[in-house]
Amino acid sequence: MVDQMKEREVTDVATLKALADPLRLAVLGVLMKRDPEPVSVKEVAAELDEAPTKLYRHVKQLEQTGLVYVAETRLVSGIVESRYRSAQQSLRLSPQVFAEGGEQPAVLEAVLAAMDLVRSEFQRHFLAGRIDMSPERRTGKFAHATLRLSPERLRRLRERMNEALDEAFAEDDHIGPDAVEVTLFALLYAVDPPEEERA
User: Fold this and answer.
1) CB count, 10 Å around CB of 58?
2) pLDDT digit string (tens) for 86-115?
3) What is the mean pLDDT of the chain?
4) Three-state DSSP class for 132?
5) Distance of alpha carbon 94 from alpha carbon 107, whole angstroms
6) Helix or strand (DSSP H, E) at 152
7) What does the alpha-carbon distance between residue 110 and residue 116 come to, in Å, rounded to a whole number?
8) What is the β-pairing status of strands 5-10 and 88-93?
9) End-to-end CA distance of the chain
């Protein structure tokens, strides 16, 4: 039996490469959402509206990096079927992977894959009429801005965002019957001026 982590901090290239694909991230998302129930590749495929044959190699790559594991096996029509669980409830990229001289190509691909997944999932749910961003419902929030902030204001904003995220993740322990599935994607970054302007 594998002990599931609450949060996994990603520090290595192999895991970053495993996360650098929107379909693998979607598979991982299904397993996290369905946890603690073990899920077969066929069940994941049905939820993602994909062919199971398309997912087997992706699941194997997630398994090789320890992001998922075989929780149980069972015999189905004479064939052994593996059922998987996520090895963690959430993921966080270590600040070290963003460091200069670190794993920049791999981390960039992982971040872009997450952005692609959020985009496609939002589009799918929005077009299916499953997302209501109207002011009356107050269930969604969209904000996109480029601001100029002092280092101190940027530090405070980041701290407040971290506190809000920590609080949201902690509330997972108190899910009631009226809970709704929520997707949260946050990306905050400062852009340094070009080198010639810094001289």
Assistant:
1) 21
2) 999 888 888 888 886 666 788 999 999 999
3) 89
4) coil
5) 10
6) helix 151-170
7) 10
8) parallel
9) 57
CA 55, CA 61: separation in Å to the nearest integer? 10
Residue count (the chain): 199
The DSSP symbol for 88 reads E
Q: Where are the alpha helices (DSSP H) in 11-141?
A: 13-19, 22-34, 41-48, 52-64, 104-127
DSSP 130: -
Q: In angstroms, rounded to a whole number, what is the distance separating the alpha carbons of residues 146 and 37?
A: 41
Which run of H or of E encompasses 168? helix 151-170
pTM above 0.90, yes or no: no
- pLDDT score recorded for residue 172: 58
pLDDT digits (tens, 9 = 90+) for 34-65: 989 999 999 999 999 999 999 999 999 999 99
Rounded Cα distance between 186 and 165, Å, is 9
pLDDT of 126 reads 92
Residues 160-179, mean pLDDT to the nearest whole number: 78
Strand partners, 9: 92
